């Protein structure tokens, strides 16, 4: 099986499993799990934040951040392709009682000027603009990366206008590696940051929410209310630590493999367009004469798994469990469709 559906499908390596098996653990709800604390502190220091909170998923991190930063009848500003809008089951409304204001950005990236243009006026009949969420990299934007200069401008606008700013760092380390930036460059830009460990980094589960001590103290309470309080979870935190210390630099390989796929897909007569990959996500459209469902079923017969990503679009995601030789096999198979 060559599974290109997502970088969430990776399996722990023997070395990661060994780190998990030997992890020191304690009851994290009682603040007694040393490995969880080590993971939280490691990421907080890396991104120049005061504290961290280990959660089961990036979705929970994002939902906690929205809950802490807002109150009912507030409004959240984000791009129309954002994960918090598309893939979190309307949690902004369900959990936080907020409305959402969508911006038509560039492959999931919004600008400081667009934020300024979308802040609500102070009228009784309008929600209060309170929180801006940016996603880096943007999944539905084909792994698009924010320029650090634009994030600095966005941060300045949010501070000037009294808005909170949350970074959905779903594939943050892909962005850092591809843009050759440093995690410390993000210090003081955001009120909160979520870092996912279970995508390109290869951990089986988990994300860490970062912020100042007061924010994290409130976030812990919200995490408990959401059912996210965990006990001897150092077993999973150990996997995240291993991933951070061993699987970051190799993300370059995933990005190179994505470029290889994109170049080969562009040669196929039934592929009408390919979004140039900036990281590890390849999204392409098939010609009007081709049903993407048929192509997906054809690939499945040969042990190749991909996902439909729109009426005529298909997504492939490279990761540590897929090598170049396997991708060459994918290309050969697609040439026969």
Give the topology.
Elements: E1 2-3, H1 14-21, H2 34-46, E2 51-55, H3 58-69, E3 74-79, H4 83-86, H5 91-94, E4 99-103, H6 112-117, E5 128-135, H7 148-161, E6 164-169, H8 172-179, E7 192-196, E8 207-211, H9 213-225, H10 234-246, H11 251-265, E9 271-274, E10 281-286, H12 292-301, E11 304-305, E12 307-308, E13 313-317, H13 324-335
Parallel strand pairs: 1-11, 3-4, 3-5, 5-6, 6-7
Antiparallel strand pairs: 2-8, 7-8, 9-10, 10-13, 12-13
Helix pairs in contact: 1-10, 2-10, 3-9, 11-13
Notes on the structure:
By secondary structure, the protein is of the alpha/beta class. It folds into 2 domains: 233 residues, Type I PLP-dependent aspartate aminotransferase-like (Major domain) (Aspartate Aminotransferase, domain 2); 86 residues, Aspartate Aminotransferase, domain 1 (Alpha-Beta Complex). It has 13 helices and 13 strands. The strands form 3 sheets. Strands 2-8-7-6-5-3-4 form a 7-stranded mixed beta sheet, sandwiched between helices. It has a 4-stranded antiparallel beta sheet with strand order 9-10-13-12, with helices on one face. The longest helix has 15 residues. The relative contact order is 0.17. The mean pLDDT is 98.
């Amino acid at each position: 099986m060559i599974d290109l559906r997502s970088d969430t499908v990776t399996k722990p390596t023997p070395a990661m499993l060994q780190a998990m098996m030997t992890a020191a653990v304690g009851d994290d709800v009682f603040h007694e799990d040393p490995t969880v604390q080590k993971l939280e502190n490691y990421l907080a220091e890396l991104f120049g934040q005061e504290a961290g909170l280990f959660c089961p998923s990036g979705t929970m991190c994002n939902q906690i951040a929205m809950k802490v930063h807002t109150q009912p009848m507030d409004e959240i500003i984000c791009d129309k392709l954002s994960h918090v809008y598309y893939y979190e089951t309307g949690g902004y409304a369900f959990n936080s009682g907020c409305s959402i204001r969508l911006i038509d950005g560039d492959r999931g990236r919004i600008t400081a000027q667009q934020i300024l243009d979308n802040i609500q006026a102070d009228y009784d009949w309008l929600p209060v603009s309170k929180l801006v969420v940016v996603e880096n990299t943007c999944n539905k934007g084909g792994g698009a990366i924010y320029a650090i200069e634009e994030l600095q401008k966005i941060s300045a606008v949010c501070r000037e206008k009294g808005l909170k700013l949350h970074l959905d760092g779903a594939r943050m380390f892909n962005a850092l590696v591809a843009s050759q930036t440093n995690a410390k460059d993000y210090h003081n830009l955001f009120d909160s940051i979520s870092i996912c460990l279970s995508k390109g980094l290869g951990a089986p589960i988990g994300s860490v929410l970062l912020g100042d001590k007061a924010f994290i103290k409130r976030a812990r309470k919200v995490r408990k209310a959401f059912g996210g309080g965990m006990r001897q979870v150092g077993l999973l935190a150990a996997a995240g630590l291993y991933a951070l210390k061993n699987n970051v630099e190799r993300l370059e390989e995933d990005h190179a493999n994505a470029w290889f796929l994109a170049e080969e897909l562009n040669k196929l007569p039934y592929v009408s367009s390919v979004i140039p990959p900036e990281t590890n996500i390849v999204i392409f459209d098939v010609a009007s004469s081709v049903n993407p469902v048929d192509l997906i079923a054809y690939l499945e017969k040969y042990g190749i798994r991909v996902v439909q990503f729109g009426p005529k679009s298909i997504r492939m995601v490279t990761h540590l469990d897929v090598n170049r030789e396997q991708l060459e096999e994918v290309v050969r198979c697609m040439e026969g469709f």
